[in-house]
């Protein structure tokens, strides 16, 4: 039984506890970190789906439809909006509920937007942590909305097992330049507004590309026609997501990717902690203040200075310790 | 006498040695780092000027004029183009020489563009290092060209003592949103294309703003009218740069800023070395491979995992050591 009452409430499905713990985690508080540790056994069970794609393709509308669809199935859904242009961002929760046709008190949906600033460990880590809190809360599905590849601080590959790239039939030249990048991240293409002219051609073209490129894994990107406006193709999209989740559980290349994601998270967590330690040392430690001054005044070079600092932090002698102080550079 | 023959040649003003050492430094080779250490006493003497500003204001043309002007004075000039849109970037050296009206063999000018990728220690550090190599080579002035504030990976404050923000009379709404950011970095405003209508108003307006904002230092931003096209105001701009350099040598707030820059460089150098160490450990160390696997499989949580990793790197016990392995989370 976790000692933190807030965590106990989270595990019982208390929405206030979820909101509070997300805030704790975002601020990097010790309570937040301890909560993440203690809930870890309760994570890894939800279907985590990333929705990404260029501006204006109707990502948020499609997510809204998907949420409504999943709620009808009785599945509990969390939505994390990392896209700053998302209507989910900025607390538009009431509006969303109206659009979603969900009762205002629906306890099976929780929407959270991630601020692009002020994430103590970076936006990717903030998103990973929030996914876990939502899983511990009891969400069956967590949907992460990010902007198109290369434009976001969060790489959708870092946080979601299944990645849906949303497109529309006529994206013009944009799609040409995006193509390679999209195929790198897409497990599924959702062609939204599939009632528009040109949709069959777009779908055929994407399927051809998927066949040719078939990436590194044995997964061939699905292409699903749908329409958020007309509420068509939503179940097809969900089935495709489930199919990919099943694949990811079994395929060896998908398992390798999971190991890569883990290594990346560990690296980022360690980097963040090291950064904090360096900052602290540089700002508070007297010896370090002296070192900064010596480098500022040109009495020691910054390369040797950083080796000394590194030795101080790690407690290990640096690989190439400066034998002596640098010859002072002449005063400016 | 430095042991590396390349460094000895650099200090004698050998251009080939300069080019080779910049490449060594960019690739992060031990020879590069050792060279930076040994040349350090020969650095800190040049006037390092940052030119920044929005696209299309004629930054590069103004720099070309300034280079020609300084060469006529007999000063040796280095140019580092960090702006990927700069005509200096991409090896347009011949074209530049023609535009500059300099003889093709002019040994008092060296232009180098910094690739935005592949800098082993990041673009800011690459720029700092290249400035130092140019100083050791014997440059009297080093000009660093970057794109406007907030759009660049290199903060012009990190590398240059005097920062020139280039503007044109009619920038429209852009200037409104940039204004605060520009006053934060500008020591001097160069109003280029000052023959265009609206120039006197723009200059008056900037001077008013400079008077009101007068920043944290006792320096009030200069506003200089010039025209790269008509080659007017170039000497005024240079005098303003010299005036600011003189100020920076004496003013206490400018000295504090130098200490901040030093601390930032040390922090970035240490971070870079730590990142390398973490990468190496994660990719080569067997114990770490096992840790990644345990986290991937959910047998240990990433937060405790990163603490273990941190302890491994620093040789110190982490602040909050995980008492036991996490309860395994259920298999997906």
Task: Please tell me about this protein's structure.
Two copies of one chain form a homodimer. By secondary structure, chain A is an alpha/beta fold. The first copy, chain A, has a domain at 43-250: Rossmann fold. Helix content of chain A is 52%, strand content 11%. The first copy, chain A, has 13 helices and seven strands. Chain A has helices at residues 5-11, 15-26, 30-39, 59-72, 93-99, 123-137, 156-159, 173-185, 199-213, 234-250, 252-284, 286-296, 302-314, and strands at 47-52, 77-81, 109-113, 141-145, 162-167, 188-191, 222-225. Chain A has a seven-stranded parallel β-sheet with strand order 3-2-4-1-5-6-7, with helices on both faces. In chain A, β5 (162-167), α8 and β6 form a beta-alpha-beta unit. In chain A, α2 (15-26) crosses α3 (30-39) and α11 (252-284) crosses α12 (286-296). The first copy, chain A, is globular. The model of chain A is unreliable at 90-98 and 317-325 (pLDDT under 50). At the A-B interface, α3, α11, α12 and α13 of A face α3, α11, α12 and α13 of B.
Gist?
The structure is a homodimer of 332-residue chains. By secondary structure, chain A is an alpha/beta fold.
Level-1 CATH class name of the domain at 43-250 in chain A:
Alpha Beta
Shape of chain A: globular
Using a beta-carbon cutoff below 8 angstroms, give the protein chain pair with the largest interface and the number of residues from each chain: A-B, 55 and 54 residues
Mean pLDDT of chain A: 81
Second CATH tier, the architecture of the domain at 43-250 in chain A: 3-Layer(aba) Sandwich
Helix content of chain A: 40-55%
Sequence of secondary-structure elements of chain A: HHHEHEHEHEHEHEHEHHHH
According to CATH, the fold-level topology of the domain at 43-250 in chain A is Rossmann fold
Give the low-confidence spans of chain A.
Answer: 90-98, 317-325
The CATH superfamily of the domain at 43-250 in chain A is known as P-loop containing nucleotide triphosphate hydrolases
- Provide the β-strand percentage band of chain A: 5-15%
Biggest sheet: strand arrangement of chain A: 3-2-4-1-5-6-7
Largest beta-sheet details of chain A:
7 strands, parallel
Amino- and carboxy-terminal Cα gap of chain A: 64 Å
Number of strands of chain A: 7
Supply the number of helical segments of chain A: 13
Class of secondary structure makeup of chain A: alpha/beta
What is the assembly state of the chains in this entry? homodimer
Radius of gyration of chain A: 24 Å
């Amino acid at each position: 039984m976790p000692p933190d009452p807030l965590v106990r409430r989270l595990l019982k499905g208390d929405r206030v506890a979820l909101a509070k713990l997300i805030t704790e985690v975002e601020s990097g508080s010790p309570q937040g970190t301890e909560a993440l540790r203690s809930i870890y056994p309760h994570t890894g069970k939800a279907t985590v789906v990333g929705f990404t794609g260029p501006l204006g393709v109707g990502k948020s509308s499609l997510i809204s439809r998907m949420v409504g669809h999943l709620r009808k199935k009785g599945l509990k859904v969390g939505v994390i909006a990392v896209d700053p242009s998302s209507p989910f961002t900025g607390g538009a929760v009431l509006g969303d509920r109206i659009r979603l046709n969900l009762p205002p008190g629906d306890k099976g949906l929780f929407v959270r937007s991630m601020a692009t600033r002020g994430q103590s460990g970076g936006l990717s880590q903030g998103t990973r942590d929030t996914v876990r809190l939502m899983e511990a809360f009891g969400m069956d599905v967590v949907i992460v909305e990010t902007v198109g590849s290369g434009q976001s601080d969060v790489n959708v590959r870092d946080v979601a097992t299944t990645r849906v790239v949303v497109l529309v039939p006529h994206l013009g030249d944009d799609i040409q330049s995006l193509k390679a990048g999209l195929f790198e991240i897409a497990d599924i293409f959702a062609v939204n507004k599939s009632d528009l002219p040109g949709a069959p051609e777009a779908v055929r073209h994407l399927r051809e590309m998927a066949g040719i490129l078939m990436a590194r894994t044995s997964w061939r990107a699905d292409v699903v026609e749908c329409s958020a406006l007309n509420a068509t193709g939503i179940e097809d999209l969900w089935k495709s997501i489930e199919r990919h989740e099943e694949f990811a559980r079994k395929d060896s290349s998908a398992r390798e990717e999971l190991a890569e994601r883990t290594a990346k998270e560990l690296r980022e967590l360690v980097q963040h902690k090291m950064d904090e330690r360096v900052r602290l040392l540089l700002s508070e430690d007297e010896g370090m203040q002296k070192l900064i001054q010596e480098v500022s005044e040109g009495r020691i070079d910054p390369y040797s200075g950083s080796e000394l600092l590194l030795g101080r932090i790690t407690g290990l002698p640096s690989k190439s310790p400066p034998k002596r102080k640098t010859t002072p550079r002449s005063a400016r």
